[in-house]
Amino acid sequence: MCDNTIDCSIKQAIDALAVPDLLIGHRLILKDDELTLNREEKASLPFTSLERLRASGAVRNVAREIMKSMGFVDFPILRSTCGDPIWPAGVVGSMAHNTQIAVAAIGLQRELEAVGIDIENVVPLPPDMLDLICTPLEIHAISDYPLGTKLLFVIKEAVYKAAYPLDHKFLDFHEIQVDPARRIAITSTGRKFTLHWYVSSHILAVATVRNKSITS
Ligand SMILES: CC(C)(COP(=O)(O)OP(=O)(O)OC[C@H]1O[C@@H](n2cnc3c(N)ncnc32)[C@H](O)[C@@H]1OP(=O)(O)O)[C@@H](O)C(=O)NCCC(=O)NCCS
């Protein structure tokens, strides 16, 4: 069940992604979501604006619900000083939000080494950001995809969120090379990510690395 057009559209996107061994949840960001942050979580966040706290509260609700379904109850989701969320031992996850929607993706380390998620509105990438985000090769490779260069941006943000907890290294957009046809991205640190995306009312992208001990 979903409540309105955006809600239904994101649900459809998540169902279509069907990322193996990954639970993805979402919700609309609501008034008072900021009040659901516990004291520790709020103290770990570096911002004070109501809108930002509300989004962080909403996304933690989504993540907490998923974790509850996995048996992790009442676990506060703190933000490290570098921004990445701190998960319980054995858990990998990622969160994203815009002004309307919060999404979280959570899995277990025994199946997934890393996960990153991003969501953005379906508006084109501003032309003056093109060179910052994409290489000419990537622009060519993505030219047949709707909102291609914006999609590259969303994918790279998802990859960054997946890569950061592994290497603790800031990555410039050009340090992430996306091959849309093979649905992979490779970082300058030598990591290879599998990509999943869906474009509907929003652009939703997920990057994962499977645990090497899993063969299928
Ligand atoms: C990390 C970053 C990609 C987040 O994107 P954003 O558009 O600001 O925000 P989103 O809503 O998509 O995601 C926010 C969530 O990302 C997560 N996040 C923040 N920094 C993170 C990091 N270093 N690693 C993993 N996840 C991170 C947090 O869970 C955050 O939620 P919170 O603020 O409620 O705690 C971006 O802010 C950033 O730091 N970029 C700098 C690095 C960069 O752009 N490199 C090039 C990318 S290719």
Strand count, sense and closure of the main sheet? 5 strands, antiparallel
Q: What is the CATH third-level topology name?
A: Ribosomal Protein L22, Chain A
The CATH homologous superfamily is termed 4'-phosphopantetheinyl transferase domain
Helix/strand/pairing category: alpha+beta
* Helix content percent band: 25-40%
List SSEs in N-to-C order. HEHHEEEEEHHHEEEE
The CATH architecture would be: Alpha-Beta Complex
Strand order of the largest sheet: 6-10-9-8-7
Let me know the average pLDDT: 95
CATH class category: Alpha Beta
**What's the helix count?**
6
Q: How much of the polypeptide forms β-strand, as a percent range?
A: 25-35%
Q: Quote the distance from N terminus to C terminus.
A: 32 Å
Oligomeric state, counting identical vs distinct chains: single chain
Hetero ligands:
coenzyme A
The Cα radius of gyration reads 17 Å
The 3D shape can be described as globular
Question: How does this structure look, described?
Answer:
- The chain has one domain: Ribosomal Protein L22, Chain A (Alpha-Beta Complex).
- It is 32% helix and 28% strand.
- The protein starts with a helix and ends in a 6-residue tail after the last strand.
- It has helices spanning 5-17, 39-44, 50-69, 130-133, 136-141, 148-167, and strands spanning 22-28, 78-79, 85-86, 91-97, 101-108, 112-121, 176-179, 184-187, 192-199, 202-210.
- It binds coenzyme A.
- Residues 56, 59, 79, 82-85, 95-97, 118, 156-157, 160-161, 164-165, 170-171, 173, 176 line the site of coenzyme A.
